[in-house]
Amino acid sequence: MSTAPITYLTTPEQQHLLFLCLPLKETPSLPKPTVDLVSALGSMLAGKQLDGAPTAFDSRPATGVHFTMSFAQWAPGVNPWFPAPSLPPPFPIFQVPPPSSKGKRNLLVVMAIYDADFGPYIGAFTNSQAFSALLDLVLLNLDETDFVSDDDPTSAVNILANNGTYANPDALVQLLMRYNHADPTAPITAIFPGLTDTKILKTSGGYPDANQLWPLPQAKIAFAPSVPPPKPRQPL
Question: Within 13 Å of residue 162, how many CA atoms lie on the same side as its CB?
Fold first, then answer.
């Protein structure tokens, strides 16, 4: 029996791209070998604790993260863990402008494919006190000189000074959008349309008739509109 092709996807069934380029402080606040920025972020997105032990519940269905990658791009000569200079790729997006102080600044690049809208995706992290504390430790180790003033409600300094991410989830969303180079309303046409993370993680019945819906060609899919997050404040 044949299965009709998928021609429409609601917003929760869609996937979107996150592409963050975060300006890090020159000196990382997380000393190695205890933990480093990239491994801490990987643990968070994989639903694990910093020591690699699983959390009390599997967070992946809630966060809807299909795929994630991250790397720290250290400014030349400041990498405290590797003596060789670290040069950025020759693309404008990876060239973090130097701060007004003329000091050096590093870059944390994060890419992820996630389910649903940007707000629910980030909210799955900020609704958890444990995840919020990790976001404070990992993602808010920022040098936002020339991007936004410290007294701005959406700055990393201001969020941390006012009880952190858990108390300021909307401000965090706007901070992330300041450095998100992907369009959170542009859906990604997946090989398996509608294959959400929740469905992937079901032991049975998660994605019915997958063998009939793949490989392509698929029928043209109409995507329901996605809700854009609040616009970030303009850089100084």
Answer: 16
- Residues 74-116 have pLDDT tens digits of 776 655 555 545 556 666 777 777 788 777 788 888 898 999 8
Give the pair of three-digit tokens for residue 230: 């609040």
What would the DSSP string read from start to end of the chain? ---PPP-EE-GGG-EEEEEEEEEE-SS-SS-TTT--HHHHHHHHHTTB-TTSPBPSS--HHHHTEEEEEEEEEPPTT--SS--S--PPPSSGGG-PPPPTT----EEEEEEEEEES-HHHHHHHHHTSHHHHHHHHHHTT-B--TTT--TTSTTSHHHHHHTTHHHH-HHHHHHHHHHHB-S-TTS-B--SSTT--HHHHT-SSSSSTTHHHH-SS--PPPEEPPPPPPPPPPPP-
Q: Tell me the pTM.
A: 0.78
What is the C-alpha separation between 165 and 65, in angstroms, rounded? 20
CA dist., res. 143 & res. 104, Å (int):
10
Q: How far is CA 99 from CA 42, 81, 189, in A?
A: 28, 23, 38
Q: Which amino acid is at 157?
A: V
Cα(148)–Cα(234) distance, integer angstroms: 8
pLDDT digits (tens, 9 = 90+) for 157-200: 999 999 999 999 999 999 999 999 999 999 987 667 788 887 87
The Cα 227–Cα 175 span in angstroms is 17
Tell me if the bond preceding 217 is cis, omega within 30° of 0.
yes
